[in-house]
Specification:
FAD-dep_OxRdtase_2_FAD-bd; oxidoreductase activity, acting on the CH-CH group of donors; Succ_DH/fumarate_Rdtase_cat_sf; flavoprotein; FAD/NAD-bd_sf
Length: 553
């Protein structure tokens, strides 16, 4: 009759949130069974692919960079970005406030005590660019962990292996949960299918051949199974058409195919409620991976502020739709053209200093945790960008490199669906270039570049010295076709602050908890409508910790 398990707590999903939750329960002496439909090679989930950025407030790293931050400023930024707007946001708002308290207080000391360390230059992501009470980070808060995503996972994996060695934690890979067992109104366990063993590499699509079944009983079940970003059709069905316009006909995927959201449906079948399912976070700076690992594999460019951004019709994007300022506003602006792509036009001088690619595998120097490797990659490349960026420039299907604007536009027209007018582009670029003739300018992007360079971190490693795009000395010219890249689900299973899953009436379902992306990173969507970056991994850690402690009683 299949495999049978018994534990005190079952965790469904072996990603970052699941590991944190399992460790918290084990630390309280409980026996935990961790289920995951993928193989052991995928332990750690999406976090392994990440850049390892964490949203933290008033840290030593910030103070060393002369950044003045505070809990009040961070909470104001968060609420201005979230734009919570209804009774369904009661718990998301409570979780958001609690996370900002955590990020302003014990978060850094607790993680440092586990062995984490951070790159000393704090990143300034998602700057907003509108008004002080609206969306965006007022100051840099993006702390890149030494070792990137694997560096974030490392202490929690170490603890998990210790709990496994002590007999408190059992892993059951290739176990796909299909039903939550409910007895007397209480979730009492999980049943599902055992999939055939797999040897595919992390991130590659694995077999779904069923070889058996299983059942497991426990006093509590914690769902930490991730979002829907790997299923492009689910993304389209959930797309907020009234808010962002119609979903793109063509998208690329920032997450592996197994990030399918199926476990959210399983929880709903057991009575769980979902909220804010039309809130999502997709990037506008996606490029097709020239060495793909999963289907439609895309990578995000993390741009500095200097690249000129044009829509598919050849119109330069206006403020606040500048690189790195307003992700969802820019997404809506791009889709309003009727096309699902846009363009960067820049120079070699800009790509060398400003382009970074998101992900641990695209930043081997930071992933190594070695200062020698970082200095070699970032400062020792001569006139070139970091090696992964240069590889995309050479091999990527979305890149055009040319010595003249005429050649560049010809290459862009070979890639794009909408022919671009050379003289129309030239007029806009030359008008921008003339703004550099004196220290005054009406161009909002020029002002933003100069403002960015007032921050030492941006001046050192993230913002090129202002120069004319058409200056041959800064060349060659580079154009990049940008696609919509799916990434995060901002809504999900409705939970309270402790991660207890709520039913349609708002009451906790006894024995059922959720954390991480499947729960909107806490509460059913603690980001509201917009994310401030570094809050995805941070949300997994925070909500996983809360759920693990609450499930342990």
């Amino acid at each position: 009759m299949g495999q049978r398990y018994a534990a005190d707590v079952i965790v469904v999903g072996a990603g970052l949130a699941g590991l944190v939750a399992a460790n918290e329960a084990c630390a309280r002496g409980l026996k935990v069974l961790m289920l995951d439909q993928e193989g052991a090679q995928s332990l750690g989930g999406q976090a392994c692919w990440s850049l390892g950025g964490l949203f933290m407030v008033d840290t030593p790293e910030q103070r060393r960079m002369k950044i003045r931050d505070s809990q009040a400023l961070a909470l104001g930024d968060w609420l201005g970005s979230a734009q919570f707007d209804g009774p369904q946001d009661k718990w998301p708002a409570r979780v958001a406030e609690a996370y900002v308290d955590f990020a302003s207080g014990e978060m850094r000391a607790w993680l440092a005590g586990l062995g984490m360390r951070w790159f000393p230059v704090v990143g300034w992501a998602e700057r907003g660019g509108e008004m002080a009470h609206r969306h965006g980070n007022s100051v840099p808060r993006f702390h890149i962990t030494w070792g990137t995503g694997p560096g974030v996972l490392a202490p929690f994996l170490r603890l998990a292996r210790q709990h496994e060695a002590n007999g408190l934690l059992q892993f059951a890979f290739r176990h796909r949960a299909t039903t939550l067992s409910v007895e007397g109104g209480r979730v009492a366990g999980v049943t599902g299918e055992v999939l055939e063993p797999t040897k595919v590499a992390r991130g590659e699509a694995s077999s779904r051949v069923v070889t058996g079944d299983f059942s497991a009983t426990a006093s509590a079940v914690i769902v930490t199974s991730g979002g829907i970003g790997g299923d492009l059709e689910k993304v389209r069905r959930a797309w907020p058409k009234e808010r962002l316009g119609p979903p793109p006909a063509r998208m690329i995927s920032g997450v592996p195919a197994h990030v399918d959201g199926d476990m959210i449906d399983v929880a709903c079948a057991a009575g769980a409620a979902t909220i804010n399912t039309d809130r999502m976070w997709h990037y506008t700076e996606g490029i097709r991976n020239w060495a793909p690992i999963w289907p439609a594999h895309g990578i995000r460019i993390l741009p500095g502020p200097s690249s000129l951004w044009f829509d598919a019709l050849g119109n330069r994007l206006e403020a606040p739709y500048l690189p790195g300022f307003d992700t969802l506003g820019t997404l809506k602006r791009i889709l309003a053209t009727g096309y699902d792509y846009s363009w960067f036009i820049l120079t070699q001088a800009i790509i060398k200093k400003e382009f970074a690619l998101s992900g641990s595998e695209q930043n081997p120097d930071l992933t190594s945790g070695s200062w020698r490797e970082v200095l070699k990659a970032r400062l020792g490349a001569g006139g070139k960008a970091a090696a992964p960026v240069e590889a995309f420039k050479e091999h990527g299907a979305d890149f055009v490199v040319a010595e003249t604007l005429e050649e560049l536009v010809a290459g862009m027209n070979a890639l794009g669906e909408m022919p671009l007018d050379l003289e129309r582009l030239r007029l806009q670029i030359e008008a921008r270039d003339r703004q550099l003739d004196n220290p005054f300018a009406k161009d909002a992007q020029i002002a933003a570049i100069r403002g960015a360079r007032q921050y030492r971190g941006d001046r050192l490693i993230r913002t090129a010295k202002p120069h004319r795009i058409l200056d041959p000395k800064a060349g060659p010219l580079v154009a990049v076709r940008l696609s919509i890249l799916t990434r995060k689900t901002l809504g999900g299973l409705h939970t309270d602050l402790g991660g207890a899953v709520l039913d349609a009436e708002g009451y906790p379902i006894e024995g059922l908890f959720a954390a991480g992306e499947c729960a909107g990173f806490g509460g059913g969507g603690y980001h509201g409508y917009n994310a401030l970056e570094g809050t995805f991994l941070g949300g997994c850690i925070f909500s996983g910790r809360n759920a693990g402690r609450a499930a342990a009683g």
